[in-house]
Structures are given as structure tokens and as C-alpha cells.
Write a structure and sequence with these properties.
The complex is a heterodimer of chains A (166) and B (144). With 166 residues, chain A is an all-alpha fold. Chain A has seven helices and one strand, in the order ααβααααα. Chain B has one domain. Classes of the chains: A mainly alpha (166), B mainly alpha (144). At the A-B interface, α1, α2, β1, α3 and α4 of A face β1, α1, α2, α3 and α4 of B.
């Protein structure tokens, strides 16, 4: 059941990206181009999504289990650190270069776009680099007397996928 | 700043956004998880047993969306101006960046802002700011 609802959520998410025009990098770049002729559409997509999402999160906050009976996995990381900001800036540069972020790129792969597939493969490679660097750090710090900041990062990492799902 | 009225599509943007929000709500309330695409995809690379199938299912839904859309009408063809080399650089940056930030437009932008997370507000401001600057540099200073 959870498998099916996961598929359905992905499907509806993808349909939303197509309907909103966000599966088209040119439209996303139109939003990011404040200095040219600006297309505010992306802000309206966010507004529509957040309006619905906010209600869902308000409901979810009071629950410990989902409607299917599985444990709720809400993010517990609260730190605003260098990782968050440097990571977001790198992502923003990549987003601005091509107009693709992860969701729309996957939808465009489903449209048979070879260029989107190249982007997705490079994105997977980038994510692989992250896993590799994280793995090395874990090994290096094992048993060592690590500084406080790294300890916090380490514990976030060890907690596994549940904390990193966004 | 001048608004590009002919290409600005407020109603379909809002409707598509509501669908994205509905998918997020459904995933949260049924599966108990955040619909953050970079996390769903990135977590797949760890190959933790029992943690793979739902990720693949979600991604299959995303990739299958155009086919479902085609049942009703032709999908609008995406315009990808970037060349292959540029796409590789962009993909690498998006891959590394979203994993370090633990989120992208969906996880921080939609889910995080929906739950009023200060962390996600910071991330969204950072990636949007970087996106605005990058496009400004490329289009208006370098003329690419």
C-alpha cells in the first residue's frame, strides 16, 4: 500500500509540475531572470503548493503515525550552518545555469528529453560525490576526538535517511 | 523590472502548485514522509534494504507523469536552451548542493516553507538568491 501511495504521490507531483509549466526550464529561467522580462509564474506555483501543504503539515504535527499507520518522519535538523548555506548556494548556481531542479528534470526525462537525462545522470554523480565525501569523513573521524561541529554533523549523518528526506 | 505578461500564466501556475501541494499532503499524511525529491533520489544511492522500493515508486510516478498527462492532451514540449556540457556542470552542482543542504525546491521550498521551518527559509533564500544572481550574470553581464 505504501508503495502504491508513494507512486501516486510522485505521479500527482509530476502532473502538477507539467500543468504549472515548471517542467520547462525556459519558464523557470524566466522567473530567475529578474533583470530581463520577468515571469512571476514560479512564485504562484509555490504559493499554491504551500497553501495546501501548510494545512497538511498542521494536521501532521499532531500525529505520531500516518493514516497508513507508519511512523511520521518529519525533519528534526534545526541547525542553520555552513553546510546548509553553501549547499543551497551551489544548488542555486546549478539551477540558474540550466533551469532544472531535481523534480522537473525527472519529469522531463519522462518526456523523452535526452538533455534532461544527461542532467539527471550528472545530478546522480554529484549526489554520489556527496555520499563518497561523507563516507570518507565518517571513517576519518571514527574513534577520534572530533570537534563539536563535526560531532553534530556526524550524528545527523548517522541518523540515516529519515532525517534527510527533504 | 518588467513583467513578461504574454508568458506569465498565473492560473495554471496556481493550479499546478495546488497539485504539487496535494501530492505533498498525500505523501505526508499517508506515507508519513516529506516529499523532497533530492532526498528521495539521493537516499537511493545508499541502498539501505527496505528503503529502496518506495523511493523507486515515487520516482516512477514522476517520470510516468507525462504519460498520464498524455491521456488527456499533449504535454507542452520543454525548451532546454543549455548545451550538454552546461547541463553536466549544472547537474553536478545541483546534485552536490541539494545533498549538502539536505533539500531542494520541493523539500525546502515547498515542504519547509509549509511547516515554517527557519532552516528551510534560509535555504530557499540562499538558492533563490544564487539562482537570481547566476541568471543575471549569465544573461546580462556575460551575455551567454
Amino acid at each position: 500500500m505504501a508503495f502504491f501511495t508513494s507512486f501516486l504521490a510522485g505521479l500527482v507531483f509530476g502532473l502538477g509540475l507539467i500543468v504549472s509549466g515548471m517542467a520547462n526550464p525556459a519558464k523557470v529561467l524566466g522567473f530567475l531572470d529578474l533583470g530581463g522580462r520577468w515571469d512571476p509564474s514560479l512564485a504562484f506555483v509555490m504559493a499554491g503548493a504551500i497553501a495546501v501543504g501548510a494545512v497538511a503539515f498542521a494536521v501532521a504535527r499532531r500525529r505520531t503515525r500516518s493514516l497508513l499507520g507508519v511512523a511520521m518522519r518529519l525533519p528534526s535538523l534545526r541547525s542553520i550552518d555552513r553546510r546548509l548555506i553553501v549547499g543551497s548556494v551551489l544548488f542555486g548556481i546549478g539551477w540558474g545555469i540550466a533551469g532544472f531542479c531535481p523534480g522537473p528534470a525527472l519529469v522531463a526525462v519522462g518526456m523523452g528529453q535526452a538533455k534532461a537525462l544527461v542532467f539527471v545522470i550528472a545530478m546522480l554523480a554529484g549526489m554520489g560525490v556527496f555520499e563518497w565525501l561523507e563516507g570518507r569523513k565518517e571513517t576519518k573521524h571514527q574513534g577520534g576526538n572530533r570537534p563539536k561541529a563535526n560531532g553534530r554533523r556526524g550524528s545527523a549523518h548517522r541518523s540515516g535517511p529519515s532525517r534527510r528526506t527533504n | 523590472m518588467t513583467i513578461d505578461w504574454p508568458v506569465f500564466t498565473p492560473w495554471t501556475a496556481l493550479a499546478g502548485g495546488v497539485l504539487v501541494g496535494a501530492a505533498t499532503a498525500m505523501f505526508l499524511l499517508l506515507n508519513g514522509r516529506i516529499a523532497g525529491i533530492s532526498g528521495i533520489v539521493g537516499g537511493l544511492l545508499r541502498l539501505v534494504s527496505g528503503d529502496v522500493a518506495w523511493r523507486v515508486a515515487f520516482i516512477a510516478g514522476l517520470v510516468g507523469a507525462p504519460m498520464a498527462y498524455a491521456l488527456f492532451t499533449d504535454w507542452p514540449k520543454p525548451q532546454i536552451e543549455a548545451g550538454y556540457g552546461t547541463l553536466v556542470v549544472a547537474g553536478l552542482l545541483v546534485g552536490v548542493g541539494t545533498r549538502y543542504a539536505a533539500g531542494c525546491t520541493s523539500g525546502h521550498g515547498v515542504c519547509g516553507l509549509s511547516r515554517l521551518s527557519p532552516r528551510s527559509f534560509t535555504a530557499t533564500a540562499a538558492f533563490m538568491g544564487a539562482g537570481f544572481l547566476t541568471v543575471f550574470l549569465m544573461r546580462h553581464l556575460l551575455g551567454l
